[in-house]
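# nightly structure sweep
# worker-07 picked up a monomer target from the shared queue
# config: single-sequence mode, recycle default, output format = structure tokens
# input follows
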Amino acid sequence: MLLQRLTEQAGRLEGLPPEFYRYRQIDWVLLITTGGAAPSLADRRPPPKSRGEAVVEPVPYVQRSGTRVPPFLLVDTAEFVLGRPRGEADEQGPKAKDTAEAARRRQEYLALLRRWADEASDEPSAGLVLEVLTRGLAKDEIPPEVDARHTVGIVVDGRWLHERASVRELWARVVRERKGAGGAEQELCLVCGEPGDLLSTIPEPIKKGSIPSTGGSNEAQLVSVNSPAQGRGGAIKLVNTPVCDRCGGRAMAALNNMLASHSHRRSLSDGVLLWWTREPVDEPLIELIDDNDPDPDAVAHLIDTLHETPDPAAADRVDPNDFYALTLGLNNARTVVREWLDVPLHTVKANLGAWFEDHGVHDGWRGTTRYLPLWHLTLATGRHNGTQYVKGTAPHGIERELLHSALRRTPPPARLLSHLLQRIRADHRIDAPRTALLRLALNRSHDRTDRPMPRLDPDSTDPAYLCGRAFAVLEAIQEAALPDIKATIGDKYFGTAMTAPAAVLANLRHGANAHLKRLRRDKKGAYLALNVRLAQAFGAFTDDLPTHLSPREQARFVIGYEQQRAADFAARAAAKAAKAAAATPDEQLA
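# output follows
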């Protein structure tokens, strides 16, 4: 199914290279003219830190491995084209084994070039290039900075040779000869369902560096069976995955194209997510969950989709489009397909709508619901040093698991809740991203009654939630009475209060009387507002304060605390706005 979808996508993508070609940087260009001028090498390497100026061309390419690697047609490294030896040279020059290997590679390169010249009899450039390279360039014609690994392209009279139709046709045959399964008859392809020349291995690998990895990065194969222990029934290579040369080449071309495209990929800490749709769509999808300030209309549309999800038959009539997502990791030279998603587009929209609805938090200052980008939520699972979140401290794989939760509308990983509560106790840090994660964990639990609202719920009688609200009010009273205090009750007692609130809240309630007395004397307005708020918070309890809270109750405590603070912020912002509106013009200028 995956290879079928990639092959279909190849027909929709623009800018794909020709069959068995790949975009590569060309470092040196061998300039040849039919007028008799001496050939020369032109340096096309980009300046340092100016990769955008590099010469990048679609050129013949196929994966090659082993000690006696074969050449590419026309465009290859200086070792193949010019016979430049690899390795470190000593006082006597390059080592004998490096010189011998460079000579072998150059002869095989010339043999392939000779085959092109013999078959393309109507291509005068072929014989000319063969003659020039057979004769070879003099040592003083090859700049000393040419490295054996540098890529060399060939231009005749201002035209790239690898663009010629005869080159493309011959190179396609060469690749089929090298990568074919060797069958005399065409067999059925698993991807297209048509008879074709089957491959023994996939011709094109995934480009090096395309998949983020914590270890080393190499070119990787999407399908790789190298030993009998890996294959079904002891079969190796592509025996159990019959793929014709056309489908294999197109699928990998589409995959590499999307891996290089910002509109189809999202990097993860240990892999990459690719996504596309069967028919193009203009509206943002995955981009929204990473947007720092997502478009409210786009989010509202997704949430509406969530609540107006039709039955499957109606969905097919309304929106027949499909959504595909592929999550890849890397294990040395093999690609790890971690997840494959193939669902109707309408389903993904509903899932994304649920993602925003389940984690949104109220912003008291702006009076809006705030939606956090996925990268920020991931960062918030790590350690906070008092100034910012420390990169690299989030649990391994948590970003990928949260992305899975967003796309499939599943609960976040079970470890998230306990880990986040531990981090809150250790860091004394509660903010919008962590509150959003707690809401997400509770909203997607199996207990469907445990769904905290995105903003303060004044009617809630949940003891844990009320304890969090009460603690926030007590902290606000202290901060109003002692604005210059260095260590608040939140700094000292929050970790204990969120696990065993009864004793802590009772003591803090008694201690708040002194603060209220000071406020009544110095700040009568603040005293009246906070005294009423404190009475409401403790008056909402219908039973004794809980002596111990479970992890889920601790999460509700934190949410109640943060939502009470957000409501207080909103009240202060409203009071400030009302005061400004009532002020005279002279007072406003002052």
